[in-house]
């Protein structure tokens, strides 16, 4: 279980302080699929970065099964993230000097698994293993980034608009795959999206606006084939 309590986060721009997260509290159950919805600039990515331990918060706490990660030293936090979590970034963040296969292997190496080709096949990138990120389309890079995160076999997966660069068919395939894996391995999945239809797939829908949670509702999840796009 992840317990987020009164999290605050600001960014400074010269003398101006911009408060992006204004006291957010949220509990996420183990194995739950939670979607975060909200307008652009409402703080979704910042919130995901903060609860995954990628960014430090100013105030509040983020506990995983009772352990407050905001109190961890850098080295301890890095080890925690490496062991437990994976992240699909809005901007992919692939290593430009590594091929698709090597990028995914970087994720897989962490759990001692070597063969990542089936994973690339699963995300529809068979034959693209040896391409570098600069030789791939945005949607292909996004899928490498999804494969890399899954390769880590995380307990908690954070995904920031993981289908934002994909066309409908590829997007649906990717969600089908991700959610099947999440259900099967009981992964806790926290996904950011703009798409109200995608939100219908989740166990819980959390809406943000201007750095606050404005609603938090349980949902009876639909299947990928039942939603619009
Ligand atoms: N590193 C940073 N330095 C300064 N300001 C930042 C930084 N990161 C985010 N912000 C500001 O925080 C606010 C929230 O940004 P965030 O990226 O969390 O929004 P978002 O909800 O993910 O938006 P989008 O849907 O467009 O991705 C924005 O006003 C943004 O300008
Ligand atoms: Mg964002």
Q: How is this structure best summarized?
A:
It contains seven helices and ten strands. It has 229 residues and is α/β, with parallel strands linked by helices. Helix 3 packs parallel to helix 5 (138-151).
Radius of gyration in whole Å, from Cα? 17 Å
Count of runs of 4 or more consecutive helical residues: 7
Structural class category: alpha/beta
Q: Separation of termini?
A: 31 Å
Averaging pLDDT over every residue, what do you get?
Answer: 95
Beta-strand content: 25-35%
Task: Determine the CATH superfamily.
Answer: P-loop containing nucleotide triphosphate hydrolases
In this entry the ligands are: adenosine-5'-triphosphate, magnesium ion
Number of strands: 10
Largest sheet: 6 strands, mixed
CATH topology: Rossmann fold
Instruction: Give the low-pLDDT segments.
Output: none
Order of helices and strands: EEEHEEHEHHHEHEHEE
Query: From the coordinates shown, what is the CATH architecture?
Result: 3-Layer(aba) Sandwich
Percent range for helical residues?
25-40%
Shape: globular
CATH level 1 class label = Alpha Beta
Number of domains in the coordinates? Answer: 1
Q: Taking strands numbered 1, 2, ... along the chain, how are they ordered across the largest sheet?
A: 6-7-8-3-9-10
């Amino acid at each position: 279980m992840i317990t987020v309590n009164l999290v605050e986060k600001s960014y400074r721009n010269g003398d101006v302080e911009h408060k992006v997260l204004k006291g957010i509290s949220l509990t996420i159950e183990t194995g739950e699929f939670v979607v975060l919805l909200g307008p652009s600039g409402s703080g979704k990515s910042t919130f995901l970065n903060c609860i995954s331990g990628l960014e430090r918060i100013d105030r509040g706490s983020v506990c995983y099964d009772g352990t407050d990660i905001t109190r961890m030293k850098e080295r301890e936090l890095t080890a925690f993230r490496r062991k437990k979590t994976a992240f699909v970034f809005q901007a992919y963040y692939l290593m430009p000097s590594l091929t698709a296969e090597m990028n995914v292997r970087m994720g897989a190496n962490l759990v001692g698994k070597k063969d990542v080709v089936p994973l690339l096949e699963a995300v529809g990138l068979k034959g693209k293993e040896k391409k570098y990120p600069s030789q791939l389309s945005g949607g292909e890079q996004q899928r490498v980034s999804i494969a890399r995160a899954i390769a880590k076999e995380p307990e908690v997966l954070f995904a920031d608009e993981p289908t934002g660069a994909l066309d409908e068919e590829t997007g649906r395939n990717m969600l089908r795959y991700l959610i099947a894996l999440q259900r099967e391995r009981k992964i806790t999945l926290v996904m950011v999206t703009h798409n109200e239809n995608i939100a219908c797939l989740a166990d819980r829908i959390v809406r943000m606006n201007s750095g606050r949670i404005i609603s938090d509702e349980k949902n009876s999840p639909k299947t990928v084939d039942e939603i619009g796009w």
